[in-house]
């Protein structure tokens, strides 16, 4: 399968994701420039971490207007698996592909450290090989990762099984101490209703090799490989769907790009 | 449509008044002093030039300089740019060796690590800016040194920082400290450049004048190394990156004078960083260099256009002619003086091959950056600056650079304070009574910010990005995996990085302090399993015009040079920051040593953490009992005095070789350098790191506190599996290194049985004549050590 690693000006985990996908997991991977308007031929899209457009204005706020994002939305609406990591997660929130918003970390400082996250659902293409309740050791590195959603939104997330990862302690207990940034309900990652779009603040690409402290993040990349092998449809769907169909899908999904 | 002739003429007059370049230049020039005013009013003095330096400029030019030219000389002949007081001393350093591809003289040193790969690295200070504007001062410090690395064609892969502040009890110090850490974090993180290591010391002498030294390390293919040389007459000269504004004018001059209560007014001479632009600049410049179209490239650091143009021309023996009207600017009405002295960040000067300008412009445009041809390389050796074709400055390029700047060898005099400090005898101090007091002293040391965990600092740095950080901050030295040709075929290489210094040792004895800084940096690398390769030095001192300070500087450089020679680690580049004084009070002489080492197989590395219950704990190297200059004296007795620990470089070399050999044979489970706080702190740190206790028996001759907390050199605390102990002993015999088995790993706390060695060599049994047994639960040590700095910062 083939990963698209989107590169915005200021992305800085693009090369790490590329390395994880190609050299560690052994799949095809290609960088896709932010001005690019074609994702055909790709099976999975990764929005990597970094400081797209310097994170000026607000994290992800400018990146969502990049030309490539129209295609990412189209890809997502067509059911293609999309993974937003850290800044990529922030961009997905800004683009309205995922609900909620990011605040600055509780202590107002950038935080880089190992965290433990518990897999809350295995229904997404990125967690299919995980056991629900499985604890992964994956690091964080962000200044704005304090996930916020209002109460009604949180209920929705819970009801639709959209919470994918929660910060826990090493044994999988959700505790205030294991919440590194103040996120609502210790949320570390979520998905859209369909489950094909996943965003998370921790960096699975940094925990793919034991030498770096943990190889727990591999399962996230391996899951999507297995998922696509099982389905074998995403690429076909993407290639076959003509523009009209895509517009219909977009309408059905509740809005074209630009509406939130 | 008909227009009356008079009206046309009127309009043309109006245009010429507003738009005629000549008139504009006159207007500009009217705001600047004339050559005559400069002479009559002695305006060079306000720019930091001496009278004889002004006369020298007149002699070089054969005429009086205009205001722009004077400004150019003033900045490039500042201590910061010209190293007027340190250049003769640099000659003492060994600078070549079998692995050295590029020594001092370029933007950074280059060292061969095999497989066609090279490490490119350098340290630089940003002390003065950080003293008045901590966030931007530190941020642009990172930006500047990172540009020095990628300008060589190397991808920056790591940053290390060496910080010095006053006591964290002082609210202003906390403001400076948190501002500097945020600045490094804000800039480095955005670049996607991991800050993998560093050090922070706290002492009152740095209260007003903090030190911010940043070391950047890059990796390059040897055949892609780029140099900063303006070769090829007729080649174009391009300015790339950010626009030029009025920020940072005379930043280098400001960095070359002492601080005082009015220094805050100099905040406008601190530059403002934009890491986003820098990130784009990194990618674009590396792409440009790989294209092969770049002949020479240099960043615009201190004194921006002036330094980059004169240095590039100077290195090539060529000249450069450029029209500053073509330089993209961020504000209107900037004078030639301002243009040439601006220190706006994130700019580079590039000399491409003639005819390939457009290729480069396309690369930079793709990254959203400007690349503009502003001039060309000439053969007359002059830096000729024009504005819309009219010459506004014309000086011999080389006369601006370190080749042309004056050199000073002021008087050096051994400071009188040393006699008193050296006369101090720690043996006359009251000894802490009983094991409880010694245990309390250990907890005090663990909580001292200089020794305590720096987690509060490094958790604000992204130390993992680029996914090569095998050992990050908190280790003796950082270890990065090096991807490359070897990957997948046999061992994966690694590089080990550290930065180190002890200003207090240098204050008490700069020669020994300089030697120890080198020895300890090498020891840090060795503890990870790396072979030390080369050094970059950051010399932070007071005002060299004072004989005592110049003596400190000279002695420290001599010490560093001798240790580098002895340990086989040449100096490949560095930086000097002088005039670190506030209201006449100098900082401790603080030569910072950045060092890079190589691990042939990154899997054969070692950490400082105890690993397994039952492992034997062994001290490699001499047992010492000395307290001079120790952290213990300062923290527990409030005394800074005595002689720093003695250093026997021959023993040091043997201990390091032994440790490396033992790691390579897979004998060691852990290795940790004994540094500040001595053996006791090393034991505690190895326990904390492994989250496991230890029981040791520590023999001493005179005083238990000296054995516990003395900072004797050339000692490495290791742990080994019991079955490997004999082999380690044998190995040590071969290197003639003393080995002292201390005890074993295990339990929930650190237990130290103190055993006095009687004069006849008999060691008393436990609890008989010694002060007894210290016991500290792991939890208490962790609490004191881990949260100490965070507790201060919550105040």
CATH topology (level 3) name of chain A: Rossmann fold
First-last Cα distance of chain A:
31 Å
Could you report the average pLDDT of chain B, rounded to the nearest whole number? 92
Structural class of chain B: alpha+beta
Strand line-up of the largest beta sheet of chain B? 8-10-7-11-9-12-13
Question: What is the molecular shape of chain A?
Answer: globular
Oligomer: heterodimer
Any overview of this molecule?
The complex is a heterodimer of chains A (260) and B (795). Chain A has a single domain, classed as Rossmann fold (3-Layer(aba) Sandwich), CATH 3.40.50.880. In chain A, the strands form two sheets. Chain A has a nine-stranded mixed β-sheet, with helices on both faces. Chain A starts with a strand and ends in an 8-residue tail after the last helix. Mean pLDDT of chain A is 90; it is low at 233-260. Helices cover 27% and strands 22% of the residues of chain A. Chain A has helices spanning 14-24, 67-77, 87-94, 151-159, 218-231, 234-240, 243-252, and strands at residues 2-7, 28-33, 44-47, 82-85, 101-103, 111-119, 135-142, 146-148, 163-168, 187-191, 197-200. The longest helix of chain A is centred in the last third of the chain and has 14 residues, at 218-231. Chain A is an alpha/beta fold. Chain B is globular. Chain B folds into three domains: 77-225 and 453-603, PurM-like, N-terminal domain (60s Ribosomal Protein L30, Chain: A), CATH 3.30.1330; 226-407, PurM-like C-terminal domain (Phosphoribosyl-aminoimidazole Synthetase, Chain A, domain 2), CATH 3.90.650.10; 410-447 and 606-795, Phosphoribosyl-aminoimidazole Synthetase, Chain A, domain 2, CATH 3.90.650. Chain B contains 29 helices and 28 strands. The longest helix of chain B is centred in the N-terminal third of the chain and has 21 residues, at 171-191. Chain B starts with a helix and ends with a helix. In chain B, helix 9 (134-150) runs parallel beside helix 12 (275-290), helix 12 (275-290) runs antiparallel to helix 15 and helix 24 (649-664) runs antiparallel to helix 27 (725-735). Chain B is of the alpha+beta class and 795 residues long. The interface between A and B is medium-sized, with 30 and 32 residues.
């Amino acid at each position: 399968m083939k990963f698209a690693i989107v590169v915005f000006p200021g992305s800085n985990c693009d090369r790490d994701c590329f390395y994880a996908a190609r050299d560690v997991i052994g799949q095809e991977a290609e960088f896709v420039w932010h001005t690019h308007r074609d994702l055909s031929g790709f099976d999975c899209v990764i929005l990597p971490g970094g400081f797209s457009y310097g994170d000026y204005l607000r994290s992800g706020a400018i990146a969502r207007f990049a030309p490539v994002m129209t295609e990412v939305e189209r890809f997502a609406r067509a059911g293609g698996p999309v993974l937003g990591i850290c800044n990529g997660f922030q961009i997905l929130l800004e683009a309205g592909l995922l609900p909620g918003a990011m605040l600055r970390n509780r202590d107002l400082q950038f935080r880089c450290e190992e965290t433990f996250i518990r897999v809350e659902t295995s229904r997404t293409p990125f967690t299919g090989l995980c056991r629900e309740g499985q604890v992964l050791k994956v690091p964080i590195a962000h200044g704005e990762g304090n996930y916020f959603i209002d109460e009604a939104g949180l209920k929705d997330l819970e009801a639709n099984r959209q919470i994918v990862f929660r910060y826990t302690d090493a044994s999988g207990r959700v505790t205030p101490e294991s919440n590194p940034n103040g996120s609502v309900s210790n949320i570390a990652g979520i998905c859209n209703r369909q489950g094909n779009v996943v965003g998370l603040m921790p960096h699975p690409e940094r925990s793919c090799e034991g030498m770096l402290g943990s190889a727990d993040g591999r399962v996230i990349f391996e899951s999507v490989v297995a998922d696509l092998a099982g389905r074998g449809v995403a690429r076909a769907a993407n290639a076959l769907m003509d523009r009209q169909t895509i517009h219909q899908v977009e309408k059905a999904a509740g809005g074209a790009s630009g509406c939130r | 449509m008909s227009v009356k002739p008079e009206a046309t003429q009127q309009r043309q007059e109006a245009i010429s008044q507003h738009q005629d370049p000549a008139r504009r230049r006159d207007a500009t020039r009217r705001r600047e002093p004339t050559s005559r005013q400069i002479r009559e009013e002695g305006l060079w003095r306000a720019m930091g030039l001496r009278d004889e330096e002004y006369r020298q400029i007149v002699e070089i030019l054969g005429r009086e300089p205009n205001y722009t030219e004077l400004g150019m000389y003033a900045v490039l002949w500042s201590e910061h740019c010209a190293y007027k007081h340190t250049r003769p001393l640099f000659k003492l350093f060994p600078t070549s060796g079998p692995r050295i591809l590029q020594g001092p003289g370029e933007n950074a040193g280059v060292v061969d690590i095999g497989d066609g790969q090279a490490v490119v690295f350098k340290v630089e200070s940003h002390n003065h800016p950080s003293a008045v504007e901590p966030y931007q001062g530190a941020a642009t410090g990172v930006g500047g040194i990172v540009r020095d690395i990628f300008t060589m064609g190397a991808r920056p892969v790591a940053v290390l920082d060496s910080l010095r502040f006053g006591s964290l009890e002082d609210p202003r110090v906390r403001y400076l400290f948190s501002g500097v850490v945020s600045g490094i974090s804000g800039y480095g993180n955005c670049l996607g450049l991991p800050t993998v290591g560093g050090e922070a010391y706290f002492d009152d002498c740095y209260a007003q004048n903090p030190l911010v030294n940043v070391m950047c390390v890059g990796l390059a293919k040897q055949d892609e190394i780029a140099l900063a040389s303006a070769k090829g007459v007729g080649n174009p000269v391009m300015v790339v990156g950010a626009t030029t504004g009025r920020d940072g004018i005379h930043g280098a001059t400001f960095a070359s004078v002492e601080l005082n209560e009015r220094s805050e007014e100099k905040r406008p001479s601190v530059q403002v960083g934009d890491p986003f632009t820098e990130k784009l600049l990194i990618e674009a410049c590396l792409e440009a260099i790989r294209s092969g179209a770049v002949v020479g490239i240099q960043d615009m650091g201190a004194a921006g256009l002036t330094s980059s143009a004169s240095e590039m021309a100077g290195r090539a023996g060529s000249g450069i002619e450029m029209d500053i009207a073509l330089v993209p600017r961020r504000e209107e009405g900037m004078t030639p003086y301002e243009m040439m002295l601006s220190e706006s960040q994130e700019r580079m000067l590039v000399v491409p091959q003639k005819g390939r300008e457009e290729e480069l412009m396309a690369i930079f445009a793709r990254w959203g950056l400007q690349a503009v041809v502003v001039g060309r390389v000439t053969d007359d050796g002059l830096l000729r600056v024009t504005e819309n074709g009219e010459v506004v400055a014309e000086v011999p390029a080389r006369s601006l650079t370190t080749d042309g700047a004056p050199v000073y060898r002021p008087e050096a005099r051994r400071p009188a304070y040393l006699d008193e400090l050296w006369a101090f005898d720690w043996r006359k101090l009251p000894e802490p009574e009983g094991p409880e007091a010694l245990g309390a002293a250990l907890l005090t040391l663990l909580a001292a910010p200089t020794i305590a965990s720096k987690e509060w600092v490094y958790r604000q740095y992204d130390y993992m990005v680029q996914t090569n950080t095998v050992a990050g901050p908190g280790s003796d030295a950082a270890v990065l995996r090096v991807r490359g040709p070897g990957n997948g075929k046999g061992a994966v290489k690694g590089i080990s990085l550290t930065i180190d210094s002890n200003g207090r040792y240098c204050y008490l004895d700069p020669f020994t302090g300089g030697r120890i800084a080198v020895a300890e940096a090498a020891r840090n690398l060795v503890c990870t399993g790396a072979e030390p390769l080369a050094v970059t030095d950051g010399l932070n001192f007071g005002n060299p015009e004072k004989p005592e300070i110049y003596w400190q500087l000279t002695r420290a450089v001599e010490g560093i040079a001798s240790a580098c020679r002895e340990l086989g680690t040449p100096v490949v580049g560095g930086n000097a920051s002088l005039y670190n004084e506030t209201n006449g009070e100098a900082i401790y002489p603080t030569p910072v040593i950045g060092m890079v080492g190589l691990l042939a197989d990154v899997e054969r590395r070692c950490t400082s953490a105890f690993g397994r219950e039952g492992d034997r704990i062994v001290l490699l190297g001499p047992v010492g009992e000395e307290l001079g200059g120790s952290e213990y004296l300062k923290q527990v007795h409030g005394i800074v005095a005595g002689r720093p620990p003695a250093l026997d470089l021959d023993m040091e070399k043997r201990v390091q070789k032994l440790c490396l050999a033992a790691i390579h044979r897979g004998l060691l489970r852990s290795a940790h350098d004994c540094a500040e706080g001595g053996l006791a702190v090393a034991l505690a740190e190895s326990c904390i790191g492994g989250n496991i206790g230890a029981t040791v028996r520590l023999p001493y001759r005179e005083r238990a506190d000296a054995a516990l907390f003395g900072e004797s050199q050339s000692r490495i605390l290791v742990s080994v599996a019991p079955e490997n102990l004999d082999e380690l002993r044998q190995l040590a015999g071969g290197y003639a290194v003393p080995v002292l088995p201390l005890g074993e790993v295990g339990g929930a706390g650190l237990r130290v049985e103190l055993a006095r060695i009687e004069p006849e060599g008999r060691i008393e049994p436990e609890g008989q004549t010694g002060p007894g047994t210290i016991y500290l639960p792991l939890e208490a040590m962790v609490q004191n050590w881990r949260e100490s700095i965070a507790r201060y910062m919550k105040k």
